[in-house]
Design a protein that fits this description.
Elements lengths: L1 E4 L4 H12 L5 E4 L7 H8 L4 H4 L5 H5 L9 H10 L8 E4 L2 E4 L3 H8 L2
Parallel strand pairs: 1-2
Antiparallel strand pairs: 1-3, 3-4
Length: about 110
């Protein structure tokens, strides 16, 4: 299992705590230190929608003034590739799934079987 995110993100910290508390092993990939490119983002988009992956509530979205650009899905994808801080976090690759964000009930149903 791989967890993508940044250590300062509250949702990422909750996810890491959940995995540690439940003794679930994972690899952490810091997207600030190891930006994810076009291939990785496109592979995620085959499994989840752009709206799940694109963070339009974060600081980076506001500072780049992206709301004013009224981006379509292709525009959002281009921005995700250029600027990984626009990714909703954490992004978890588990078996054949991509799970975005922190949801304790969802995590329990997937990881604590």
């Amino acid at each position: 299992m791989k967890v993508y995110g940044i250590k300062t993100c509250g949702s990422v910290r909750k996810a890491i705590k959940f995995f540690n508390d439940n003794e679930i092993e994972f690899d952490f990939i810091d997207i600030r230190k190891e930006p994810q490119g076009k291939e990785k983002i496109e592979s995620w988009l085959k499994k989840i929608s752009i709206d799940k992956l694109f963070n339009n509530k974060g600081t980076k979205y506001r500072t780049l003034k992206l709301k004013e650009l009224n981006l379509d899905d292709e525009g959002k994808k281009e921005w995700l590739i250029k600027e990984n801080m626009l990714l909703k976090r954490p992004i978890i690759e588990f078996k054949d799934q991509v799970i975005v964000g922190f949801d304790e009930q969802l995590y329990a149903s997937i990881f604590l079987r």
